Amino acid sequence: MAIDRGLLALLEAKPGKGEELRAFLEAGRALAVQEHGTVTWYAFQFSETTYGIFDTFADEDGRQAHLNGQIPKALGQVGPDLLASEPDIRQVDVIAVK
Hints:
Blueprint (H helix, E strand, L loop, with lengths): L4 E8 L5 H16 L4 E8 L4 E8 L2 H8 L2 H13 L5 E6 L5
Antiparallel strand pairs: 1-3, 1-4, 2-3
Helix pairs in contact: 1-3
C-alpha cells in the first residue's frame, strides 16, 4: 500500500483548556481506529496550548472519508469551548515513508 497523502491539523487551546483538548485527542484515537481508510493517525502536543493531528491515507477516498467522519464532527462540537481559533487543517502530499 502506497501512502501518498495526509492531513495536518494544528489546534490552539483556549487558556486553561489544554488538558481538556489533550483528553479529547486521546479519546479520538478510538474513532480513528474505526476508519478503514485512515492508515495512521497521530495526536501530538507542542506546548501547553498547542496540539496537532497528523493522518495518512493511501488514496483520496480515505482522506475525504476522514474529513467527513466522526473526528471532525466531534471537533466541531467541542471546538467553540476548547479552541482559541479555528483549526488550521492542511492537506499534504506525503513524499517519503519508512
